[in-house]
Structure formats: C-alpha cells, structure tokens
Amino acid sequence: MKYMGVDYGTKKVGLAYSDESGSLAFPHSVVPNTKELKDIVLNILIEEGIKEIVIGHSIAHDGTENPVMEKAHSFKEILEGEGYIVHLQPEFLTTFQAKRNTEDAMADAAAAALILQSFLDKD
What is the mean pLDDT of residues 59-73? Predict the structure, then answer.
C-alpha cells in the first residue's frame, strides 16, 4: 500500500510518498500552506492512488504538543472527512535533520519523508 507523509508547517507543508509496497519513503514536494492546500493534497492523493496519510506529530522537549499541532489536527480532520485514514507519527527535529542533507527548497519534503519512513519502519 502506498502512503503519503506530511510535515505540516504554518507557512509550508512538506509532502512525501512511499513506494507501492509501503517500505520506502521519498520526498515529493513543498507546497505553501494556503487555502488551496486541501485541494493540492487531495489531487496528489488521487493521482498517486494513496489511501493513508502520516502527519508528523510535533512534540516539544517536555512532551507537550507544539503550537502548530492545533492547525495540523484540523487538517487531519479535513482529510479524514474526505475518507482517508490519517496517522500521527511522533517527530522531533526532522526539518533540522533534513536540512543537513538536502537543499533548503526541498527540506520540508525531505522531513516528510523522514516522518513517513519512521512510520513505515515501525511495522
């Protein structure tokens, strides 16, 4: 099964997807977090035949959710309302890790791939 990974940010959203077997994650794109986000993501989901989504669960050092998660939860509910299965995957410093190995323009997509890969590896 193919999955989408999401690194949700207030300004930009990194997207990634897995291979057909659901074992490897690849960066896809970085899109602006605007009113069109839902439509952009839904179009990719349909084009790629993806049914399940993994959103990074941004947690602070003390274990509480970072402020971005309020909007991320709303986005999760929108996708679930469209009939998709959405998982939250704990993430910590994934964008920082991605920026060490990726050009800045694709760092959020690389972070989404790291989030998705950690979800795929736990099964």
Answer: 90
